[in-house]
Write a structure and sequence with these properties.
Length: 225
């Protein structure tokens, strides 16, 4: 499976980016606007750079730059994700995109759902967390954790209604429930070392779990290597 890392411009100490770079392998790395600076500081030359460069402050000197007008209908991250999908990348990991401006963070959470709905395996990396979108019906409607996974795990509805939500192997289990995006009952469940799974039959939601458990997480049919 071809994997691509996308690095955004959200303010960050880059601890999560460093962890991902040290523990995960990628076929390509994309810099999205100010994400170019974080990669440059680490001696990494991205395969492509995207943006209107309002965050970076200047168009970088790079052989593969996709420069956009600031007056556009899509965000830089949206355009970078679309390009990665067009290039045949089947799994995307998005870093430095979920801190800082709330509108940008919420927009990027929406992009995770959109990509999963199109059939792209996508993971968001937040502050010491991973954000996994589940969309049903579709390939990415179930997430499992291998034995040993521990820590806080939250489930938040994206769609107005999620049907058939099931959580097995966590501290508080659930079977075939209906949840809405106006209720927060899915906050702060716990992975307790047992094999666990979260799935739904209809709708879309986010699962948020500890970054250190990323290697133990898998979508249906797809393992994180």
């Amino acid at each position: 499976m071809k994997r691509c890392l996308l690095v955004g411009a959200a303010p960050s100490a880059h601890k999560e980016l460093d962890y991902i770079l040290q523990t995960q392998g990628f076929d390509a790395v994309y810099a999205v606007d100010g994400g170019f600076a974080a990669l440059q500081e680490r001696g990494i030359v991205p395969d492509a750079v995207f943006g209107d460069f309002d965050s970076l402050g200047a168009v970088p000197q790079h052989p593969c730059v996709f420069e956009y007008d600031m007056h556009k209908d899509f965000t830089d991250m949206d355009l970078a994700i679309g390009h990665a999908e067009q290039q045949g990348f089947e799994e995307l990991v998005i870093c430095d995109a979920f801190t800082g401006r709330l509108d940008h963070s919420l927009g990027n959470l929406q992009l995770l759902i959109q990509a999963a709905a199109r059939g792209t395996c996508v993971w968001g990396i937040g502050e010491e967390t991973v954000i996994a979108p589940l969309v049903a019906p579709g390939l990415f409607c179930s997430l499992s954790f291998a034995e040993g996974a521990q820590g806080t795990c939250s489930v938040l509805s994206h769609s107005d209604v999620c049907k058939g939500v099931t959580e097995v192997g966590l501290e508080w289990e659930l079977g075939g429930a209906t949840c809405t995006n106006r209720a927060l009952w899915g906050i702060s469940n716990e992975l307790i070392g047992r094999p666990a799974s979260i799935s739904l039959e209809e709708g879309s939601l986010w699962v948020i779990f500890p970054l250190l458990e990323f290697p133990r997480a898998a979508y249906t049919y797809i393992r994180v290597q």
